[in-house]
Amino acid sequence: MRNSAEIINNPPSVNRGGPTALVIFGATGDLSRKRIFPALYKLYSQNLLPQTFVIVASARSQHTSIPFRSIVFQMIQEKQKLKKDVWQKFAQEIHYFPSDLALDIRLQTIATAIDEFEKKSNTCLNRIFYLAISPQIVQKAIENLGKYNFHLGCTIHKGAKKPRIIIEKPFGQDLKSAQNLAQTLSRFFAEDQIYRIDHYLGKETVQNIFAFRFGNELFEPVWNNQYIDHVQITTAEDISVEKRGEYYDQTGALRDIVQNHLLQLLALTTMEEPEEFTAESIRRKKLQVIRQIKKLTKEEIVTSTVRAQYQDYRQEEKIDPNSVTESYALVRLFIENPRWLRVPFYLRTGKKLMGKVTSIILQFKEKSHELFKTFWQKPLPNHITLQIQPNEGIGIRLVAKKPGLTTKLEPVDMEFCYKTSFDIPQPDAYERLLMDVVIGDQSLFLSQSVIEESWKIIDPIREVWDHDQPKLATYKPGSWGPKEADDLIAKDGRQWLQPLLTICKI
Ligand code: BG6
User: Fold this and answer.
1) Span from the CA of 198 to the centroid of ligand 1 (angstroms)
2) Structural domains of the chain in order of their starting residue, each with its CATH number
3) Measured from the CB, is residue 204 less than 6 Å from ligand 1?
4) List 230, 261, 383, 467, catalytic entry
5) CB count in 10 Å sphere of residue 152
6) 0.85 cut: is pTM over it?
7) 116-138: pLDDT as tens digits
8) 314-324 as b/e: b if 16+ CB within 10 A
9) Ligand 1 centroid to 155 CA: how many Å?
C-alpha cells in the first residue's frame, strides 16, 4: 500500500492494473455523459489505463457499437477537445450492448460478450461493474447481477481476480434502507469488492486536507479546541435542481449533500492521524470521529438546524407544487472527544445561492493581546480557509501592521493557490476514482459502517423536519441563504465568514 509521501509524489499511474473489462450500466445517462466517459478518455489519452482495457457499455436504448461511439464522442466533446488519433484508438475499445439490468432483459448477451473478450485476449480480465443507474433500481440491479453470476468473475482461465462493483450515492434513504442495500450487496460481493463513490473524496483539494494537516508540523498543535473557536463547512451551488427535480424533491439538501459530502469533509478535517496510509487505517479513523458526533435531540434539532427552500422552487420542473423539500440545509454539530469538545461545526449547503463554492473555514479564538490594546479595539481572529472548489487553494488570515508612522493593525490574507504553485492540471475526481478502482485501492471510497453512522446522525434530523420543525424558511435566489441561518449563528455570538469567492482568482 502507498504511504502519504508516495501518494503526494506519485500519481496512481505507477500501477496501471491488469487487463480489465469495465462494464458500464446506464451508459447513456447523465453520469456517464458528464463524468465517466470524459474521465475514461482523459486517462486513456494520458496512457494511464491498462494496456488491455475493454469498455462494455449498456443501457436500454437500442444502439449498436458504432453509432454509440459517436454519442460518446459528443459526450466527451462537451468537456474537452479530442485528439483524432487518440479518439480513434479509444473508440475501438467501446462496445455497446442494449440491456435492462433492473428488468433482467438481455443480460446474457453481456455475460457472453465478456467471455468472448476473455477468450480473444486469452486471459482473465479484471471485471468491474459500474452501476451508473437510478437509485430506485439499484437493489434489483444487484440481484440480477447475481442471477447471471456476474459476481463470480472469469471462469475460463486460472488466477481470476474477484470482480469489483462501483455504486454511487445515495446509499439508501435512511439507515434502514442503507442496511437493506448492504445486505443485498453482501449476498454477492465481499466488502473488498465494493467501491462506494462519494465523488468529493476524489477531489484533489479534499485529498490535500490530509497533506496539509499531517504533512505540516505547523498546524497539528493548534488543530484543537484550545485554539479553534468554530468551523464553517459550506457547499454552495448557484444552479437550481435543473433536470433532477424528481430525484431531488424526494431527497432534499440534507440527504443529498450533508449526509455524505459534508460529513466526509467534517471527518477529514477532524479525524486523528491514521497509523498508516492504508484504506483500512483511514476508514477506521474516519469512522471513529463520525461516531463521536453528538446525535441531536428533538429539542436541539429545532434550535440547531435550519431548513429552507428558494423562492420559486415549487415551480421547477418535476417538483411537487406543494413540496416542502428543503433546497437549503444548515446543521450545527458537536464532536464529543477531547480534541473538539465544545467547538461548533456549522455545515450548510444550498442550491441557487450566490455562487458555487465549497470551503472549510476554521476560525481561531479571539485573543485580546494586551500589547496592542491601545490601537486594536476589536481583536481580529485568524482563520484558515481550505478552498475545495473553485480556484482551489488555502488561505490564512493574519494580522499585520499597516505601513506608516502610526501603529495600525489590519487583517491580511496569505494564499497558496494550486494554479500558481503547481503548473499541472488537476485531475477530475472521477479520473482519480476510476483509476483507483482499476488498481484496487479503496482508500477514497466509503465503507458501509461510515454510511450507517452518517445516517444515524441524519435520520433523527429528517424525522423532526418531516414534522415541520423547525418551520420551513425561504430565501432569495442569488443570496447566501435564509435569514434564519444568520440568526442561528448570530445567537452563538458568531457570524458567517463568507466563502472566499475571490481566493486564488488569477
Ligand atoms: C451531487 C449532488 O452529489 O453533488 C448534486 O447530488 C450536486 O445535487 C453535486 O449538484 C455537486 O457536485 P460538485 O462536484 O459540482 O460540487
Assistant:
1) 10
2) 4-168 (3.40.50.720), 201-491 (3.30.360.10)
3) no
4) 261
5) 13
6) yes
7) 999 998 889 999 999 999 999 99
8) eebeebeeebe
9) 39
